[in-house]
Amino acid sequence: MPVKIAPSILSADFMNLERELARIATADLVHVDVMDNHFVPNLTLGLPVVRRIVEVSPVPVDVHLMIEDADRWAPEFARAGVASVTFHAEATQAPVRLARELRSLGARAGVALRPASPVEPFFDLLPELDMVLVMTVEPGFGGQSFIEGTLPKVRRTRDAITAAGTDTWLQVDGGVSRETIARIAQAGADVFVAGSAVYGADDVAAEIAELRSRASTIWA
Ligand SMILES: O=C(CO)[C@H](O)[C@H](O)COP(=O)(O)O
Ligand SMILES: [Co+2]
């Protein structure tokens, strides 16, 4: 089954991260948003915290870097032992060189795109990438509403991955909820980040199961 649910700890209780990670043990990945207050107008957490998350997380760690100078910093997150490192296309000088370096360090390599950034330049480069992240909100904050106008980009990306025949995952991040997930899956996404929808639910495990079920129906 291709569908993966990746709760974002951006909406978790940062004072109790170990407990918050344990609550999402039935998820496929945990999504960790790293923000530097330069690439986006928000500041979250950095390498020392990510290293501890890797040690205690019950599921593989998926890092989303919203930082400038990804070429300098992204490899450090791979060295921290995360499963995947996604850097923004807008924050790197050399995406292929960086993706190759991340892979050589044992991490999956992902490229992320702001809603207004074109994905087409990456179509010929898909064999170099383990994941494409199409942002479905402007990066920086959880709890924003889904931007419907990003769906055609998700569909074009899925079509390009199918044409390339690569095993590149297609992640969406921002405004994923019970209301939006089926439409996003219909457009071709297979990895779904959900922060406020999961951590805002009374029963976190039930919410993860519900999101997975709604997306899986489309993929079945
Ligand atoms: O990268 C992000 C914000 O830049 C977060 O991963 C994303 O916003 C998740 O939050 P929500 O599901 O509440 O929209
Ligand atoms: Co994110």
TrEMBL record:
Root EC class: isomerase
Any one Gene Ontology molecular-function term assigned to this protein's record: D-ribulose-phosphate 3-epimerase activity
Annotated pathway: Carbohydrate degradation
Main function: Catalyzes the reversible epimerization of D-ribulose 5-phosphate to D-xylulose 5-phosphate.
Family: Belongs to the ribulose-phosphate 3-epimerase family.
EC number: 5.1.3.1
Provenance organism: Cellulomonas gelida
Catalytic activity as recorded in UniProt: D-ribulose 5-phosphate = D-xylulose 5-phosphate
HAMAP family: RPE
Metal-binding in keyword set: yes
Gene3D superfamilies: Aldolase class I
Protein name per the record: Ribulose-phosphate 3-epimerase
Catalytic site: D33 (proton acceptor), D173 (proton donor)
Names of required cofactors: Zn(2+); Fe(2+); Co(2+); a divalent metal cation
Cell membrane as UniProt keyword: no
PROSITE patterns the UniProt entry points to: RIBUL_P_3_EPIMER_1, RIBUL_P_3_EPIMER_2
Record's keyword terms, sorted: Carbohydrate metabolism, Cobalt, Isomerase, Manganese, Metal-binding, Zinc
Binding site residues for substrate: S8, H64, G140, F141, G142, G143, D173, G174, G175, G195, S196
Residues engaged in binding a divalent metal cation: H31, D33, H64, D173
Example GO BP: pentose catabolic process
UniProt-listed InterPro entries: Aldolase_TIM, Ribul_P_3_epim, Ribul_P_3_epim-like, RibuloseP-bd_barrel
Cofactor binding comment, as recorded: Binds 1 divalent metal cation per subunit.
GO cellular component: a single term: cytoplasm
Top-rank taxon: Bacteria
